[in-house]
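Sample entry (191 residues):
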Amino acid sequence: MKRTKELILILLAAICMMGCENKASQSVKSESVASCQQSGKVSVQDTNLQLKEQLDSAEWKTFMDKTYQVDVVYPDFFKADTTEAGTARFYYLDGNEMAVCLTMFVEPNVEGWNIERATRELTDSYSTCLEIGKDYFIMEGAFEDETNCLYLEKCYLLGDKWFDLAVYYRVGYRDDIGKLLELIKCWNPNK
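Predicted structure, serialized as tokens:
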């Protein structure tokens, strides 16, 4: 889990922090990337307020991963990438940049870790374990190389697989994504 998790965190940090000059990630590769020099660009505060208002009034869709029989709800205005079994990404773009990304994935427990060992191995100076349950843990933190991108995730160990739901977001969005943070904390793949 640690190696796969590191790769996913690196990928998501790159997605979360990509500049306008960079090519879009696979989940948004079909969209063109425009210049940041556009006139009349909306301020970050205005965009955050728009996101909060959109989340407050959003219709929520449900995605069901048919392979693992796990579902995730997400705001209807988020873009979706659900092409790979056991992985789903739902994201919000601020202009041409990823601002918030809700991600669900399932992976085998190749290390054979239990909940206690996983939290011990994954906690470092950039991440903190917030809660440990019988078959899950919740962590939050920043990326080692990019502290402007934060995450909150809930990981369940069910049988020999990890079921993970996380939200990755830019620092300035924390106060505006309360509904997504609550979604992570309440999520249970057994439902």
